[in-house]
Amino acid sequence: MWKWKRKGKQKSSKQQPSNQQSTKQSDTIPKFIQVMSNSEDFVTYTLSGRTKCTISYIKTMCDSKILNRSVLTTLNDNHLHTLHDMQEKIPVEDIQITKDLDVIKEKVMVGYIMLQVRDAKEEVLLIPAVSLEAREVSVPEVEFSVVGPKEAFVETLNTNINLIRKRLPLPQLNIKEMNIGKVTKTRVAIVYIDGIANQDNVDTVTQRLEDIEIDQVTDSSFITQVIADNSNSPFPQLLDTERPDRVTSNLIEGKVAILVDGSPHALTCPTTVVEFFGASDDYFLPWHLATAFRLIRLFAVIFSVLSTPLYVAVLTYHHEMIPAELMATIVSSRSDIPFPPILEVIVLELTIELLREAGARLPTKIGQTIGIVGGIVIGTAAVDAGLTSNVLLIIVALSALASFTTPVYQIGNTIRLIRFPFIIGAQLWGLIGISMCMVFYIGHLIKLQSIGRPFFEPLYPLRLKDLKDSFIRLPFNKQTERPVLMRTGDPQRMNSSRVNAKRDIDE
Amino acid sequence: MRNKCLFIFMISLVLLSGCMPNQSVEEVAIIQIAGYDLGEDERIRGTVSIPQYGKSEDKASATELYLTVDADSVKDVEKEIKKQSSSPISTGKLAVSLYSREMAEKGLSSIIDVLSRDPRLSRNMYLAVVEGEAGELIKSGYTQEETTSKNVQGLIETNNHHNFPTSSLHDFLYAYYGQGMNPFLPLLKKQETFVELSGIAFFKKGKMVSMIPDSKVFTFKMLKENFSAGMQDLPFREGSIMMDNIGSQVNYKMKGTMDNPSFEINISIKAEVNEMLGLDVTPNPQLANEMEKAFVDYFKKEANELIKMFKEKEIDPLGLGSFAKTRRRDFDLTKWEEHYPELDIDVKVDMEITEYGIFS
Amino acid sequence: MNKINNSQGLQIPEKYLVTPAYVFFLVNSMQVGVGILGFEKYLVEKAGFDAWVSILIAGGILHVVLWMIYRLLQKGGGDIVHIHKLVFGKYIGGFLSLLFCAYFTLLAFTVLITFIEVIKVWVFPGLQSWIFGFVLLLLVYYLVSGGFRVITGVCLISVLIGLPILLLKFFPVQAGHTMTIYPVLSHDITEILSASKQSVLSFLGLEFLLIYYPFIKNPKKSKKWAHFAVFYTTMIYLISLLVTFVYYSEEQLKQVVWGTISAWKIVEFPFIERFEFVGIAMWLYVVLPNICLGLWGATRIPKRVFNIKQKYLVIIFCIGFYIPLGFIEGRPVIDAINTFSGQAGFYIILYIPVLLALKIISDKVRKRHEK
User: Fold this and answer.
1) Phi, psi at A339, each rounded to 5°
2) What angle do CA A66, A70, A75 make, to 5 degrees?
3) Residue A489 sits in which domain range?
4) How far apart are CA A146 and CA A150, in angstroms?
5) Cβ-nearest to C135 among A317, A436, A461
6) Most exposed residue of B141, B267, C203, C283, measured as fewest CB within 10 angstroms of its CB?
7) pLDDT averaged over consecutive 10-residue blocks of chain C (371 residues)?
């Protein structure tokens, strides 16, 4: 991971100058207008009414209501000669006067109206008239929950920040913005609570975001991949979520959130592997139920990863391990299969993956049909034809089902993938091969870091305090401290003595 | 780039040559029961049964393939069977191993050595001595639903929870190798349509030297271990009563020096009486006392007879010698064996009948 | 992770340090290795069923040794290389440090081949050790290249995974004969002591403190954890021994080569039988920290003595481990190597008090000179 840092730095230092050069291609306003005129939707014309000025804007990005009602009427009704007059008269907020060509370009591109008067060639007036086409805030679809808030992020950064801010009416809620992407210039916001979030974490995130060298950022997952500590790892090192409530509670724990314009997902970091198995539902249920569900989920994940490798290992090498009662079932279901267990498993696993991919690519309604048709028809036919055993079919179907229990979609993908090395290990050396794979993954997880914080926490480093909200979830009055992982400036969530004050009977 | 090529080369090398020679479970002939008889000319006649699992539809019916071979030794039997079998042989799931009484009396030491050496074998497998031919017992199928191995294994396992003392391979080896104790095995007998446990065979080292019929097995188990199952009937007054053991505990106590040791075996039984055949009385405490006394006398008599027999044959299936060894620091095996036939063993039985069922 | 100041070597950057509590896992996981799978036989051969006393004596001895190690390290203020340099000077000290390196190498290698032997005997008689060893060493390299913190993590996981395996001891106890456990000492003191020596050998692993001591944050606080670890190890060995006493008869135990694995054989669940396969597979987690820490310690000494990059040393040592793998085969050879490394460990333990004494003397001499 140190290599990553070094490489990143070298690259950024090399490519900085070229970046600046490209911006200097059209360095005067007329040239800029000339370049823009190549696009049909760029409009520029001179008003010759009472006020004489030149208006330029992109038709498709401007709100015509603002233009017609506020700008044009004001300009036509009044005698305005200087930009300052205009700034005062035009009833639109946040009008700027600037000479800075970079600012002009940036603003015009997002939908500002540019006004020029002949006297002040260099200076222009920028009127915000941005027309934003955005989706309405809707119900979360990836991280659905039965109870709890039903708002999900949308593709607009401002709306997303609004969703967070309205839950956290705090002056300390800091938002830093930057533009990333050589071509897309996507707005990226770092959100954190000053005083709770560790400054080191904020700095690391800022640093890494600044160092990003990429041409486009169309989604937050680009950021995840680029700033990950180890980009070769199958494990996502930033947690992405579409639930503002989850982001809010993460912020309160002292994490840092990254929001990307155009992406309905927020990234939070530092995160741990355990966190990927916690759903926001867990906090809406009584603690014992939540704990039970978390354990079920954990078991499901282990089952999903290990069941087919164990099938291969036991059937290929260790048949002594099958109890006599199960032996008849397994052997008779396999008796006509022409393939060795490994091939059978790989074929069936790939079939399930196919179904999943097909289901994901198709529109929802057809997708469901594909799932059912594919699952039932192909499954039954394969068993009837004697290509797979029905025991394996059950195991594979169950393990596919189990992999869907993960609340975070990203880790679900990881789980889909990591079972294949296990299967190969099982074929090589049976249970010992599985064990070796497991050691490799555990070692990998120990090595992994999320924004410089250990990813395998609270298992390693073993932090008993953080275990309270990991595989289990203790009641809120037991969780009076923020996770140790965040190294937060204010570790106390609430006054634990007051929370746990004991009252006598009838008092 | 070169590194990557090297890496891919290495991985493919591992994948191609790393695989262990393997057979999937349906391709192996899994021997679940094996029987050994004495053959001609000092050879061993081994019989094994290999279950044939059909397709899933006809799972219910169990078919087996029986193979019989003559060989020089136990491992040779395996070798000979391989000659006859179409698929590779696996002995890992061997659940029952049977020996004919003739063979047991001649000595099983060489077989036991194989059993304790082979890492593939389960320690939970059962050994048993067969009155008659072990091969015959294996070859005659008993029920449609079960294979012989399952049948015999189930038979021994169920009875181990009842009247018969536990006797897995491990228990046998424990006593076989241990000092101051001798192993025993259940005796099987083939009847017309079924197999039954007919008693217990006692061994001295590898040789079977004595046996008891199944009527005395309860007493033996009572002397040997704590258990909470099993039934014993007893003639009482004009009829007979059946007692259902719900908790029997045995305790050994050693007294005296190594030169003149004496033993005290304390047994306390809690029991229910559920059947009073030919008795026309309602149960009452006095009757219970009488019954208790009758049982105590019966068990004492039986136990003393058993112990007398053990002393005569110079065998110690109860493990008194090993008990003495853990209690006395000057234990000496040869001395102990000298003393054993004249050992003073006092059996005390304490019996309590607690219930008479739900009807009085 | 190789940015540690080579010339000094004692100021490890904070982010590579581990908190004192991890010493517990480091010491414990290093002490429990392949030895525990079959140590019973050797003890019982010497002291019969009185061997439990030997375990306790050995545990006591180790506590004393541990105290000496801490005394030495606190006085010397660094690792064994530093202490050797102070006491013996650059050349002799360096040579002695290299002896330690050889010993650590031997220990790691012994564990590696013994584990491969276990797999060969119990699971795959036809295992090609040159391929299995290759993959295993790749894994070891991957872990060791992560540095000391990763190795500590592996140690932690190994101790955590070892816990449920301990619970399996319930099965043999259930099947065994508790009556045979009775505290009568029928062996004389020399027999018990020779069994103690034997058990000290299976307890080896403390010595690694001498090399990873500078990696502990607040090392003084770690002392109690180290003692606690030794106590815990003693208890694990004691329990294992008692369980095998319950499960096997004395004469039988003398013939059982891998007592603990054989006892796993009777573990049975409705869905799984023959637990020894699972047990051996799980034992990989217990064995790996041994090899990793051994290799790490072995490569760190030459790094400190000669200022060679540890990265290259690890690769060289891995290759060094790998080449003989294909040739070493058969119980007698492996037994011989085990005995040899045990002997070496015994001398290392004898050497520690000597070194402590020399250190104290040299300190006094130096003080007098300064006056």
Assistant:
1) -100, 155
2) 130
3) 466-499
4) 9
5) A436
6) B141
7) 42 85 92 85 86 90 92 84 88 91 92 91 86 90 92 92 86 82 80 87 86 89 92 92 88 86 87 88 91 93 89 92 86 90 89 90 85 69
Give CA–CA dist B171/C228, Å, rounded: 37
ipTM over 0.95: no
State residue C10's pLDDT score: 63
Q: Do C181 and B326 touch (CB under 8 A)?
A: yes
Which among C39, C97, C91 has a CA at the least distance from the CA of C245? C39
Helices vs strands, H then E, count in chain A: 18, 12
| pLDDT tens digits, one per residue of B284-341 | 778 888 888 888 888 899 899 999 999 888 888 888 888 888 888 778 888 888 888 8
Contacts of C247 in chain B (CB under 8 A): 170, 174
When scoring B25, B176, B177 by the number of chain C Cβ atoms within 10 A, the one with the most, hence best to mutate, is B177
A182 in the same domain as A79: no
Count of domains for chain B: 2
**Cβ of B16 under 8 Å from any chain A Cβ?**
no
Of the candidates C358, C253, C342, C354, the one whose C-alpha atom is nearest the C-alpha of residue C58 is C342
B28 has a chain A CB within 8 A of its CB: yes
Q: Is the alpha carbon torsion for C92, C93, C97, C100 positive or negative?
A: positive
Burial class (CB in 10 A: 0-12, 13-18, 19+), A213: middle
Residue C260 near residue C244 (C-beta atoms within 8 A): yes
Q: What pLDDT does residue A7 have?
A: 46
B136 and B236 part of one domain? no
* Cα–Cα separations (whole angstroms), residue C364 to B196, C160, C359, C360, C369: 84, 44, 9, 6, 9
- The residue among C43, C115, C75 whose CA lies nearest residue C352 is C75
Q: Which two tokens stand for residue B92?
A: 């890992």
Supply the mean pLDDT for chain B. Answer: 84
Name the residue in chain A with its Cα closest to that of C151.
Answer: A443
Give the integer Cα–Cα distance in Å for A241 and A264. 9
Q: Closest approach of chain A CAs to the CA of C336, in angstroms?
A: 26
What is the domain extent for residue B100? 25-213
pLDDT tens digit sequence for B85-97: 888 888 888 889 9
CATH topology of domain C19-363: Amino acid/polyamine transporter I (1.20.1740)
Q: How far apart are CA A249 and CA A271, in angstroms?
A: 13
